[in-house]
């Protein structure tokens, strides 16, 4: 008797669909297997003017970018292969900024699917800030490890990073790229962790054999960092900061504009700071002498188009 009562009173698919439409607070689409939008519900003040009822049936591809439709098609394929729910994310550019969405596609009755859509922009922004902080703390840790070995490195790294960022800004490098310039500058000498002490701290000139070892530190830096995806855009400086405009640098012998721009910018700061800092084998040069050296080597060591910008920056 109880079983018969339950079977007679189970909600049908239309009733279940209506219940979900009423209960869901964000945005929901009901689609058939061809992607035609059969129904929708928007909560929390979501704007869906594009979905207003019309005599012409709308398909998902009519209201979302091609990239989102491709993700939907992939999710639909997974449902057909037996998945009970498929999750995918995407970003849409709006006039007031980028907006991130999470969509969950689930199968429903009569060959229909329901796509639940949530705005996850705040979560993404918070996650991005946390992740960036974690990345920067990792970089600080590596820089600190190098400093514990060579007390000059930390001060040098801080100074050249500041100089490089200032020069990059003067050259109009966008803010979105400055984070990579900063990270690359901070890690430019990380390859020196593998250079033996008797070479790294030698007070006099290096022999040819010792120079061969020393000149490996840019490639060692790349080996250390290359598997870390978020550092890929920052590798130009660790790898190429010893290249020269005339092609006589190392490790790749690049010349002129084949040298990545961040490395060409960094070279000015690196050489200037080295010349104006005390070293075991010489006293610091006056700023004027260091700038004269840079001018004389413009077009051989340094990018001649950047030279006057750097000199003007130092002179203030």
Summarize the SSE layout with pairings.
Elements: H1 2-9, H2 13-23, E1 27-32, E2 37-42, H3 66-80, E3 86-94, E4 97-107, E5 112-119, H4 121-149, H5 151-170, H6 175-186, H7 197-200, H8 208-214, H9 217-225, H10 236-240, H11 261-275, H12 287-296, H13 307-315
Antiparallel strand pairs: 1-2, 1-5, 3-4, 4-5
List keywords for this structure.
316 residues; alpha+beta; Beta-Lactamase; Hypothetical protein af1432; 2 domains; 5 strands; disordered N terminus
Structure write-up:
- The chain is α+β, with helices and mostly antiparallel strands.
- The chain has two domains: 2-119, Beta-Lactamase; 124-315, Hypothetical protein af1432.
- The protein has helices spanning 2-9, 13-23, 66-80, 121-149, 151-170, 175-186, 197-200, 208-214, 217-225, 236-240, 261-275, 287-296, 307-315, and strands at 27-32, 37-42, 86-94, 97-107, 112-119.
- A five-stranded antiparallel sheet has the order 2-1-5-4-3, sandwiched between helices.
- The longest helix is centred in the middle third of the chain and has 29 residues, at 121-149.
- The termini are far apart.
Distance between the termini: 93 Å
CATH class of the largest domain: Mainly Alpha
Rounded to an integer in angstroms, the radius of gyration calculated over CA atoms is 30 Å
What is the name of the CATH topology of the largest domain?
Hypothetical protein af1432
- How many strands, what sense, and barrel or not for the largest sheet? 5 strands, antiparallel
Residue share in helix? 40-55%
Percentage of residues in strands: 5-15%
The number of helical segments is 13
So, the CATH homologous superfamily of the largest domain? Hypothetical protein af1432
The CATH architecture assignment of the largest domain turns out to be Orthogonal Bundle
Mean pLDDT over all positions: 80
Low-confidence stretches: 1-25, 45-51
Q: How many domains in all?
A: 2
């Amino acid at each position: 008797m109880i079983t018969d009562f339950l079977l007679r009173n189970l909600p049908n698919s239309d009733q279940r669909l209506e219940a979900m439409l009423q209960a869901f607070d964000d945005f929901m689409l009901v689609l058939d297997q061809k992607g035609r939008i059969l129904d929708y519900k928007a909560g929390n003040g979501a704007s869906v003017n594009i979905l207003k009822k019309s005599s012409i049936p709308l398909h998902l591809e009519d209201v979302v970018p091609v990239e989102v439709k491709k993700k939907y098609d992939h999710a639909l394929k997974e449902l057909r292969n037996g998945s009970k729910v498929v999750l995918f994310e995407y970003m849409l550019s709006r006039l007031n900024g980028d907006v991130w969405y999470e969509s969950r596609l689930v199968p429903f009755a009569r060959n229909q699917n329901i796509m639940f859509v949530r705005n996850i922009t705040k979560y993404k922004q918070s996650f991005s800030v946390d992740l960036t902080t974690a990345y920067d703390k990792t970089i600080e840790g590596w820089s600190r490890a190098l400093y514990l070995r060579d007390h000059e490195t930390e001060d040098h790294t801080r100074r050249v990073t500041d100089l490089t960022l200032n020069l990059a800004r003067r050259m109009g490098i966008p803010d979105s790229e400055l984070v990579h310039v900063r990270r690359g500058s901070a890690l430019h000498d990380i390859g020196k962790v593998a250079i033996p002490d008797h070479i790294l701290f030698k007070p006099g000139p290096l022999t040819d054999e010792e120079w061969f070892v020393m000149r490996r530190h840019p490639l060692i830096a790349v080996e250390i960092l290359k598997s870390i995806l978020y550092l890929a855009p920052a590798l130009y400086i660790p790898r190429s900061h010893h290249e020269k405009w005339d092609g006589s640098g190392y490790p790749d012998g690049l010349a002129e504009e084949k040298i990545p721009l961040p490395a060409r910018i960094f070279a000015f700061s690196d050489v200037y700071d080295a010349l104006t800092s005390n070293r075991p084998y010489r006293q610091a040069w006056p700023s004027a002498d260091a700038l004269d050296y840079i001018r004389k080597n413009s077009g051989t060591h340094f990018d001649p188009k950047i030279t006057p910008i750097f000199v003007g920056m130092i002179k203030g």
